[in-house]
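--- STAGE predict ---
source: upstream dedup step, 1 unique chain passed
mode: sequence only
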Amino acid sequence: MNFHQVEFERSFGTKAQLGPSDLPEIVFTGRSNVGKSSAINRLLGRKGLARVSATPGKTATINFFRLPEVRFVDLPGYGYAKVARGEKRRWNELISGYFESDRDILLILSLIDMRHPPTADDRLLVNFLIEQELPFVCVLTKADKLSAAQRRNRLDAVREELPCGDQIHFIPFSSQTGEGVAQLHEIFTDLVEETE
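--- STAGE serialize ---
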């Protein structure tokens, strides 16, 4: 797979706008400000592809990025308190609408900030993915901000903090250093090859 052969395809703000799923999809989800846009940019080697904002809750649409063999899907971040109730409702409907529509989901990346325990929303999402039997891995972002000892402690802790944590595949990741990029590229390539 050539990860540089990517283009921004489209954005949708309501579930009614979602088009059909005609390519396998790799989905990025996580709370606001966890680093989804930065992760997409790093994984695809393009700095400004997914817009990065210092303001949490800025991504209010589902954004699609197309490669020849697969589509990357950036879902709006969840859990940001300072968003109006109506806007939160629209986000929730958009995200649930995405999962309820007939999508060809290859893999979901559940992004969690490695520095902190998973939030209630993180745990809810992981529970949902397990219940729906959706394929996912947990990507632990901002790994570069922890010392080796802190990382070991957080990895041990997150296995206890998430439902079925001992059975989840965790990937420490850093958009700054590129840690985890090669591992995720390998997973994506293997999955895409299996579908061909």
